[in-house]
Design a protein that fits this description.
The protein is of the alpha/beta class. It contains 10 helices and 15 strands. It has 2 domains: 121 residues, 3-Layer(aba) Sandwich (Rossmann fold), CATH 3.40.50.720; 184 residues, Dihydrodipicolinate Reductase, domain 2, CATH 3.30.360.10.
């Protein structure tokens, strides 16, 4: 498989490149970025690969099987379309798109071209969260009644080395902490609980008043038989992740990387790498690659990632609107 990177910033270099270098079945042949900051590191990793200042030039000149898009979110939809039109499979960082209306046409184009369109949902592959998923699906706590999720950060992750951080520019990112970390929380929590019926969002600024977007989000999700409370902030005094899942037969807790299961029997503990350790998580990207190639190689497997992304972009949009209106909003019915 011949691949190319579109966007060579910190996420690409520190999160994606190590995973691609490990693969004997992949050859990264090119990269494109209008900024040259990452060129030296990229070509050290892939000495034979070619460098382009524009994605359009790369797509027009290179024969590739797939692209890995690591650019700011406002560019995703256009780059996805350009790659699909050239019949390349697409792996793209989250958020896949900024507007729910952009997803349908891209999904239709992927289907027409018979190509995979997959989002980098790397948190699903974090060992601690994967353990929670395993235990929930095994019925370790019985029927889940309530889930609480906390992502605490002291500020947004840096996007570049010169102080230009697209994460706090809503025109480029689509929102603040809600998009940056809420997207991750949504696809993980929904993998445990299903599709929510209602969403209520409260977006506020607690500390970073110079940001033109929120630094804190509280999202309540209502499901058929359970509920989830998701709290996200860039205004914490610590860097931490906590999850609590209450069920009819016990409680699961995650603190950093420690997973505990409390039932009528003796408590069980698992010590795993912390979710709060680092920002780029190259070890989690290995699972992303496997999921991506699973959809590339099997048409029957295609669509799972798109379904997750469709629900995430819908929840982001509804949470933002809910915060503006001050009321809970109902999710639309699934058509078809």
């Amino acid at each position: 498989m011949r691949g190319a990177l579109l966007g060579v910033g910190r996420v690409a270099l520190h999160g994606h490149v190590p995973g691609w270098r490990e693969r004997s079945d992949v050859k990264i042949v090119a990269a494109a970025d209008s900024r040259s900051d990452g060129r030296e590191a990229f070509q050290t990793a892939f000495p034979e690969a070619r460098w382009y200042a524009a994605a359009a030039d790369l797509l027009g000149n290179e024969k590739i099987d797939f692209v890995d898009i690591c650019t700011p979110p406002d560019t995703h939809a256009g780059l996805i379309r350009a790659a699909l039109e050239r019949s390349s499979h697409v792996l793209c960082e989250k958020p896949l798109v900024l507007r729910a209306g952009d997803l349908g046409p891209l999904a239709a184009l992927a289907a027409t071209r018979q190509r995979a369109l997959v989002t980098v949902h790397n948190w699903s592959h974090a060992p601690a969260l994967a353990k929670l998923t395993e235990l929930v699906r095994a019925g370790a706590v019985g029927i889940v009644r309530r889930c609480r999720w906390q992502t605490l950060r002291t500020g947004p992750a840096a996007a570049s080395g010169d102080g230009d951080n697209w994460r706090v520019d809503p025109a480029r990112s689509g929102g603040g902490i809600l998009v940056d970390h809420g997207w991750h929380a949504f696809y993980v929590v929904n993998s445990w609980l299903g599709r929510p019926r209602y969403v209520r969002g409260q977006l506020t600024t607690r500390r970073h008043h110079s940001f033109p977007t929120e630094d804190t989000a509280l999202i309540d999700l209502d499901y058929e038989t359970t509920s989830a409370e998701i709290f996200l902030t860039w205004a914490a005094d610590e860097r931490a992740n906590r999850v609590e899942i209450e069920g009819t037969q016990g409680t699961l807790r995650l603190e950093g990387g420690r997973v505990s299961l409390e039932t009528d029997g003796a408590p069980q503990l698992w010590e795993l790498p912390s979710l709060a350790a680092g920002s780029h998580h190259p070890d989690w990207f290995r699972g992303v690659i496997e999921s991506f190639f699973g959809e590339v190689e099997s048409t029957a497997a295609r669509g799972r990632s798109l379904d997750e992304a469709a629900l995430c972009v819908t929840l982001v949009s509804l949470a933002q609107e809910s915060s503006r209106l001050g009321e809970a909003l109902q999710l639309p019915e699934i058509s078809g």
